[in-house]
Amino acid sequence: MSNDSIDPRWLRVAEEAARAAGRLAVAARGKVTVSSKGLRDVVTEADYAAQAAIKAIIGAAFPDHAFLAEEQDATPGGPSDLTWVIDPIDGTTNYSHGVPLFCTSIALTRGGESLVGVVYDPLRDEMYAAVKGQGAMLNGVPMRVSERDRLIDAIAGIEWASPQALRVDSLRRLAPLGERVMTIRSPGAAALSLAYVALGCFDIYFNVHLQPWDTAAAALMIQEAGGRVTGLRGEPWRLDSGGILATNGLLHEAVRAVWDEE
Fold first, then answer.
1. What are the φ and ψ backbone dihedral angles of 114, each rounded to 5 degrees?
2. 160: helix, coil or strand?
3. Where are the alpha helices (DSSP H) in the chain?
4. Read out DSSP for 218-261?
5. For the chain, which domains are there?
6. Residue 49 DSSP SS3
7. Is-contact 224 128, C-beta < 8 A?
8. What's the pTM value of the predicted model, to 2 decimals?
9. pLDDT digits (tens, 9 = 90+) for 115-162
10. Cα–Cα distances in angstroms (integers) from residue 221 to residues 69, 136, 200, 215, in the given order
């Protein structure tokens, strides 16, 4: 897709919607009721309110676009083949426990390919953004992945899948990698962790199972910042891949080699 086919309004509206969601989330901190959606999976009223605000802003600007959002089934649009993939509050467990690490993730996709993506950290007023073919930015400043090429110097990020079997798989992969890297971090918000790879402060990130709304925006950022994103086995990554391995590119095969030894 050429840059000429990227509508500059897409990014502007995505950023506007992310900021609106962030304001709602911050204003409601400590005042929300938490509900369970399943094992280790919670939701708050703020998630629904933030999602409604995002959809209202985007829907007003692009009424023919469709939505795929975490707290609602896919919403058909009009004749457009464009779909907005939304996580209104990524890191809801953090949010509901008062941990100050959460974000909003919004991406515009076509045919399973992300064209525009934003990840907004409202507590730090940090807007991570990417446009396909145009690079990745943090508050307007270009981002690049790190240049670390030794596992022992690397910071690896992970979040924990909710189902028990997937958690066991996470531990199985984490143990040998943890022996070889400098340290492991688990911020608790996958989209933000992936954005940290694009920023260059994380060198590696993996997760055995994520949803499209966790990855659609930040995976584009990593690619636009010069990094590499694949499935866990090194296969081409797609929005519906589930598992993800994201690195600065220099460490990708080293991570794969660690897992292949097991």
1. -80, 130
2. coil
3. 8-27, 45-61, 92-97, 164-178, 190-199, 212-224, 252-261
4. HHHHHHHTT-EEE-TTSPBP-TT---EEEE-STTHHHHHHHHHH
5. 3-142 (3.30.540.10), 151-261 (3.40.190.80)
6. helix
7. no
8. 0.93
9. 999 999 999 999 999 999 999 999 999 999 999 999 999 999 999 887
10. 19, 5, 11, 10
